[in-house]
Write a structure and sequence with these properties.
Number of domains: 1
Strand order of the largest sheet: 5-4-3-6-7-9-8
Oligomer: single chain
Radius of gyration: 18 Å
Order of helices and strands: EHEHHEHEHEEHEHHEHHE
Strand content: 15-25%
CATH topology: Rossmann fold
């Protein structure tokens, strides 16, 4: 968008995870995409994804669906960011524009610009805005990050979910985003939270504690992704401190919870099935044979023990947003 250093959302797909957002899949789910989302949707999405071999456009429909699933969180987040005088908003790494639409609804007097490196996702963002009756205030800008930041213009609010961690120098990216704020403007980045939880510790199949082992595999994937990025710079992921170093004041954070209890509805089950499928395909080398067998059971659409049918499946995730303000003078 280190693990627990702050990136999770669970909207990002997995070892490639993502394609995210607004919303927040597998490996990146933990470090998530904007899926909208954010969390976990919101992500977050396109910028810089070309460096990590992620095909966001292939994942476009899933990203939008997962963004819709995370809409309660995205709306909570946008409400927390509401402030007077916002006339222009940038959604950096917008993906298919789920959060873009939420921001346009929350700030009815503002122009909202979806920024992404994947043209197909921007097409979806425009189409979504039209469906929501927001087309007159939502525009898109194709830009690869970080080099494309200079051409975006200034804004009163800049939102980015799970995009910064896909760029080698996270501190430099935050500094550039902060520089694009108008005086008094706010930068909000969703780069924190907790790993998604969706099953009991003992699911009656295989060895108990599967989710903890999935978390460990995703952590390994994420670290390899980060170190492999061009210009990768190691940094203590203290996001408030990083925002302060970027020249912002009043750095802080808040967390929103997505809590969909068992028995989980069909959209949540579909989200989890895709999440597990990507884990199975992308980071399976980190799994013991017994855990691979368990994943196969969970992915079996005909099995009563599978994620699509079992009664104990739920969806619980926490998305953390870090904010800072550009001084007015």
């Amino acid at each position: 968008m280190s693990r627990h250093h702050g990136h999770r959302t669970d909207t990002e797909p997995t070892a490639d995870t993502e394609p995210t957002t607004d919303t927040e899949s597998s490996a990146d789910n933990q470090h998530g995409r904007d899926n909208g989302h954010g969390n976990h949707s919101e992500h977050g999405h396109g910028s810089g994804h070309h460096h990590t071999d992620l095909d966001w456009e292939v994942m476009a429909a899933w990203l939008e669906d997962s963004g819709d699933l995370h809409l309660p969180v995205l709306r909570q987040v946008a409400a927390r960011l509401r402030r007077p005088g916002v006339r222009r908003v940038l959604d950096i790494g917008s993906g298919p524009g789920v959060m873009t639409g939420v921001l346009a609804e929350t700030f009815p007097d503002a122009e909202v610009v979806a920024v992404d490196g994947a043209a197909g996702l921007l097409d979806r963002a425009l189409a979504r805005a039209e469906r929501l009756g927001l087309g007159g205030r939502v525009s898109v800008q194709h830009a690869e990050l970080p080099e494309g930041l200079a051409g975006l213009g200034s804004a009163d609010l800049i939102w980015s979910s799970k995009a910064v961690h896909h760029l080698g120098d996270q501190q430099a990216t935050l500094t550039a985003l902060a520089g694009a704020l108008n005086p008094g403007g706010v930068l909000a980045v969703a780069e924190g939270g907790l790993p998604t939880r969706f099953l009991p510790r003992d699911i009656g199949v295989g060895r108990p504690g599967l989710q903890a082992r999935l978390d460990a595999a995703q952590e390994e994937w994420f670290e390899a992704m980060r170190t492999g990025l061009p210009g990768s710079v190691a940094v203590v992921e203290d996001w408030p401190a990083m925002l302060t170093r970027a020249g912002l004041t009043d750095a802080g954070s808040f967390t929103s919870l997505l809590d969909l209890p068992a028995p989980l509805g069909e959209p949540g089950r579909a989200f989890l099935h895709t999440h597990l499928s990507r884990l199975r395909g992308n980071v399976s080398e980190a799994f013991a044979p017994e855990d691979l067998d368990t994943l196969d059971v969970l992915l079996d659409p005909t099995s009563a023990e599978g994620i699509l049918r079992r009664p104990d499946a739920f969806l619980l995730s926490a998305t953390t947003v870090f904010t800072g303000v550009r001084p007015a003078h």
